[in-house]
């Protein structure tokens, strides 16, 4: 009886302890202040924003952690299939407001902070963006994580915890300068270190064939080499208004000396430690290239380090369940490779299954092939990853052997299907017979995966028709299109609260936050004068905020009534910021000539405009850096020319990142997505701009084409050659040199003559010569100027313009990452959302 009593007491105690944290305003205040004092060990009366931001973040994190552990417990108990998203890049953006909204605690935290003397907005500004990615690919991965959590999928992201994120861009002496981004300086309150989650990752060494004396079987042993230690850091990924909370696990590299200090007991103790500590920290730096493969040894080692730790972790979790046999892995695990960066996962998973799990080749191959899938994000040859074979052999000798075997079996199949076609065999091989030989990661990924997807219709079409044509002929069912999408909760609800309020007010509900299709109902209202008034006021409010931001960051005063024409993305020749700035120069020269000729009627027709650029150039990409210089040179000339009054201003906003995008996008009227057709796989900011009531000026490329279908031709300004025309032009231009557009010739002449400062930008201007013009700036310039004119004419009619922006915004449901994730789940992963119910916990109040 005494025993029974004790047991009951214990149970009672556990029941009492088993609670969710209280979330009333007073409890939130207590938790914040306690974190200031006890977690951060700072004086609670010393008012400082940084401490209060951190304490607030930790208070929110506490509330995420309870859901997070419950979700993981639930998933294990249900044994449901899990999705693993493998990406070397994430651009998470700030987390504070996102996490609060997910928990439905934003208002309460705001009220709690208000009474403590802080506004939520000012504390938000204290958070640094983790810049663990370089562009669209990394941001897409982050949108996917959010949608996966919100739609109740059990999914983990895996990535690297770079010590230095994408460099900070400052403008010094009218050019880009790069500074290291040590984003962890103040600590990152959202992460949880997992010293218990560690794996050894081996590189280098030799392989040796060993014959089993009993069976006569040949086994390959990988010996020697160097070990690096991977340690996990976890970031909870909450879903919006659901308990489901996923995980993002980021690996950091550590010297492995802690593991094998025992072996140094030979008087070499200090020397051995020093040696290990010197070993270059693998995860120090993110390679800042965009659409250009760095091809560096360290990069390959990062990729392998990432993949090996991740797969070891996935297998360990999988094997924890006693009922799991390895052959069942594809039914329980889906692995998505974000580009070929983690494609070394194919031979690594083979190695783990063959060498560590002793499976036969057929079984191992069946598992790998049915578990993995690959997303391609580019068709640009310079971005396709190929590694020198000697380098792969040196770092990963065992993997090279496996790649040879994969290739051997694959090419035998090709020979069977297409006898007497050695060219085809050579084209499809994983190994390119060049000097040195190269390993083609895209081929490895296509062969090793059961699905390959492109990220917009036109892009997937190009994959099937040209880049991967041979593979498409062999396995047409392997190729699918899944057009990209973006998380509308971040890009509308969070980034644009003013617009969200107007939408919810006029729809009378917030349901569009869960289902973007509900916005369709706004179309009927698009010409309603009162709705239009609200919408225009909202836009003006956002433009004023952007104008203040421009004043702060660029020291340029702009008029919020002018048209805000925005071009923000990585600086790249194919994205044609160069064409835009040439168009700006043309506009400026035209205004000057109208003034000189005193054509006042025509001058009155000119739409006052602020042209806004932002974006980073890869530090070693000199053409892109020249484009930034040219933009700044032209901006300086125009902004200081008092003759043109307020008709034209040009700014380059430094250090474009997720948070800066959240200010710029809602404040834009027109946005430019003007890549040479066939080069931009999809683009995702085009979707964000449309969602925020900004009209697109777009080339016939990537997702622009699908956006055009959704919003209607009247609501988007399209121009230029399409992919087919570009291809024909590229071949004919060598023989038939077209004349440079007269307007373009005039602009370039003015640039050379020094009108925009002493630099003559010769190499940029020379790139416009037909024989050099890979990106068709010369060819498209005329139709580009016409599209600009059409957009000016539309802007002169405010009611029509407003209606267009409303219809565009209301047509964007296809471009939510929710739709996109559902397609991945159905077409590739074969997973369903789970029905997660909260465990029976008390929700105590204070
Ligand atoms: C981008 N790729 C595409 N790559 O350019 C863009 O069209 C697409 O919308 C987006 O992916 C999402 O699908 C991209 O951002 C990179 O940044 C790589 C980083 C690593 C080196 C090679 C380029």
UniProtKB/TrEMBL annotation:
Its EC number is 2.4.1.1. CDD domains: GT35_Glycogen_Phosphorylase. Pfam families: Phosphorylase. GO terms for biological process: glycogen catabolic process. GO terms for molecular function: glycogen phosphorylase activity; pyridoxal phosphate binding. It catalyses: [(1->4)-alpha-D-glucosyl](n) + phosphate = [(1->4)-alpha-D-glucosyl](n-1) + alpha-D-glucose 1-phosphate. It is an enzyme of class 2 (transferase). Keywords: Allosteric enzyme, Carbohydrate metabolism, Glycosyltransferase, Pyridoxal phosphate, Transferase. Its cofactor is pyridoxal 5'-phosphate. One of its GO terms (cellular component) is cytoplasm. The modification N6-(pyridoxal phosphate)lysine is found at residue 688. InterPro entries: Glycg_phsphrylas, Glyco_trans_35, Pyridoxal_P_attach_site. Belongs to the glycogen phosphorylase family. PANTHER family: GLYCOGEN PHOSPHORYLASE, GLYCOGEN PHOSPHORYLASE, LIVER FORM. Allosteric enzyme that catalyzes the rate-limiting step in glycogen catabolism, the phosphorolytic cleavage of glycogen to produce glucose-1-phosphate, and plays a central role in maintaining cellular and organismal glucose homeostasis. This is Alpha-1,4 glucan phosphorylase. It comes from Chloropicon primus. The lineage of its organism: Eukaryota, Viridiplantae, Chlorophyta, Chloropicophyceae, Chloropicales.
